[in-house]
Amino acid sequence: MTNYHVIAGTWQLVSSSPNLTRMTVQLFLCRVLPDDNQHVPRLLARLDNEERDRAARFTFERDRRAYAGAHALLRHALDRAAGHRAWRFTANAFGKPRIEPPSNDIRFSLSHTDGLVAVALAHGRDVGVDVEASGRDADEATFRSLVLAPDEVSDLDGFVDRPGRLLRLWVAKEAIAKAIGHGLSLPLKQIVLRGEAPCLTSLPEQHGAASEWWLHTERYDMHWLALAARPPPCRVERMEMTVADLLTD
Ligand SMILES: CC(C)(COP(=O)(O)OP(=O)(O)OC[C@H]1O[C@@H](n2cnc3c(N)ncnc32)[C@H](O)[C@@H]1OP(=O)(O)O)[C@@H](O)C(=O)NCCC(=O)NCCS
After folding, report:
1. Cα separation of the two ends of the chain
2. pLDDT tens per residue, range 50-79
3. Model pTM?
4. What domains, with CATH codes, occur in the chain?
């Protein structure tokens, strides 16, 4: 079953429309669980040879399952937005994937982690998504030295769940870094997030003013999830599905 929710914006929910408009960001979420191992061959059948080669190189089945789920979800999302076709991709110098040849300025971001995969789609705006398991180890010393701005370190004392805070900041920064397209080569300490629901207060100036960005973070069951877009969308739609749903379209 696919569910539609508006999680931001001023427009009314259109529950049955798969349309990706210039106003909208679409977020697709799919749980990918150990029971779905049986479906991995069918997921892989939807990918291209290069993706199947990459999938074959994973050591752990959980990583292959998540990779196959994320890339099949991406094709599902693109098919809904722009019609079914044999999608091909290329990447920028930092690894950010894009559609090749470009299609209608559709941009996307994807993320896969144990148990959950996510795809964000937008039309003519930068978009980034990141998901992480909430039980993931969050070593505070590493975060302090590589990820957190001084103000974010000071803020930590205000949070009882410090590992949760660290992971929430992490997914938020990764989502912004993915939307920009520089990945982890972006100086993450210069992306500054304040407030309980992290709000972007500054980032390296070549990537625009903080006010040009929209950021959403949330705890999604056993995961942290972040979605970033520039410029801010009028509406964000969320589609939740299972691997079985993905395979029935
Ligand atoms: C992008 C990055 C932050 C992803 O981190 P992650 O949490 O480990 O993994 P996620 O599952 O959340 O995201 C991975 C996806 O992000 C996307 N991605 C990779 N590089 C990206 C970039 N520079 N910008 C935006 N998205 C990127 C890809 O779709 C990738 O999935 P895929 O490998 O299955 O195609 C990190 O892998 C990264 O920075 N990679 C680039 C490494 C780099 O700087 N290389 C330099 C080349 S010169």
Report:
1. 11
2. 999 999 999 999 999 999 999 999 999 999
3. 0.93
4. 1-124+233-249 (3.90.470.20), 126-231 (3.90.470.20)
